[in-house]
């Protein structure tokens, strides 16, 4: 699979291309930039070609897939053009800023038999597999409650996250992570039962918020998020026999060994897990879908459900 980048975004330089270098199965084509000078560092560090426009990259018939790390408000417009050019789509989260846009892109992908992938890369870190294993083995007993939080201190005022026109807001940015984690652990029957979004005076987007999700068995996930908060990146599972916690569930670097703290009445155990490259694994998951024409319906189903949950939190949270 040969992949190109639509936009010289910082995440593409810092995370995507180093991960891509570790994937011999995938070939790097180059980066499209509306300001070619902005893409020069990509070429100096990673090679490839500079395309002087997004359309020029999409017109390159040798490219099989496109990574879109643009601000969220541009995801639908350019995701549509990627699919219309006959290329597979790796979309940086969130997939779009509206459920109707997500539905439209998924319909296009299904129509033309193209793979789509939303880059919540934490799902592909091996610590997630270990956590699921512990839940399935009932190491904690029967699961009673899920808590997850993701937030960070305020960034520069010109950051797109604080601009409504670019698809900013805490929910669409950091909030999508605990929502997606809740969906993964609660399953397809997950529904939003409570939500709150907070938009302080002087801001045009929500800066922090919270929500409660519940599945058909009554298991709840309490999630919180914010982009004017002290840093948190936590998951806690509370079971009938024990609990589990970890503090780098969403953003464990590729060279970090994440740890799980297991607590029972008899004592506490620290599990030090192997380092893993979640971005690389996310890329390989897309490549598998493309090469084997597999998992495309499962991926689309999860993307659609995630978008529905986000839209419900937007509606219910803003109504308070």
Concise description?
The protein has helices spanning 10-21, 40-46, 54-58, 75-84, 99-112, 126-136, 171-186, 278-292, 296-318; strands at residues 2-6, 27-32, 49-51, 65-68, 88-91, 116-118, 143-151, 191-198, 208-214, 220-226, 232-239, 242-246, 259-264, 267-272.
Can you offer a commentary on this structure?
The protein is of the alpha/beta class. It has two domains: 2-119, 3-Layer(aba) Sandwich (Rossmann fold), CATH 3.40.50; 122-276, Dihydrodipicolinate Reductase, domain 2. 35% of the residues lie in helices and 25% in strands. Helix 4 (75-84) packs parallel to helix 5 and helix 7 crosses helix 9. It is globular.
The fold-level CATH name of the largest domain is Dihydrodipicolinate Reductase, domain 2
Give me the CATH architecture of the largest domain, please. Answer: 2-Layer Sandwich
Query: What is the percent of helical residues?
Result: 25-40%
Largest beta sheet, briefly?
8 strands, mixed
Question: What is the element layout, followed by pairings?
Answer:
Layout: E1 2-6, H1 10-21, E2 27-32, H2 40-46, E3 49-51, H3 54-58, E4 65-68, H4 75-84, E5 88-91, H5 99-112, E6 116-118, H6 126-136, E7 143-151, H7 171-186, E8 191-198, E9 208-214, E10 220-226, E11 232-239, E12 242-246, E13 259-264, E14 267-272, H8 278-292, H9 296-318
Parallel strand pairs: 1-2, 1-4, 2-3, 4-5, 5-6, 7-10
Antiparallel strand pairs: 7-11, 8-9, 9-10, 11-12, 12-13, 13-14
Helix pairs in contact: 4-5, 5-9, 7-9
